[in-house]
Amino acid sequence: MKNDYILIEEKEEVRTDSGLWLPPNPNNRRAKVLAVSEDDEDINVGDTILKAIGKGTQIKMKGKWVEAIKRGDLFAVLK
User: Fold this and answer.
1) Alpha carbons 65 and 27: distance in angstroms, whole number
2) What is the CATH number of the domain that holds 53?
3) Total domain count for the chain?
4) Per-residue pLDDT reduced to its tens digit, 19-65
5) Whole-number CA gyration radius for the chain
6) Residue 67 in contact with residue 8, Cβ under 8 Å?
7) SS3 assignment, position 2
8) pTM
């Protein structure tokens, strides 16, 4: 059985190439990948992804809130 979950941490602020800080969009969020299945070749730990709100499960680990989402619930890997 394939593990299709990704562990992520949301990025609350976005910085543009010109240096502006933007508040988070209420519908889409950028997140940093903390853990991914070994057989997933498209996504790596440390990548930034764009995901939908409300699709994952919030988990508190080591005092920080992280989220587990299904791979199908992410929109894009931002490089």
Assistant:
1) 19
2) 2.30.33.40
3) 1
4) 877 766 666 678 899 999 888 888 999 999 988 777 788 889 888 88
5) 13
6) yes
7) coil
8) 0.74
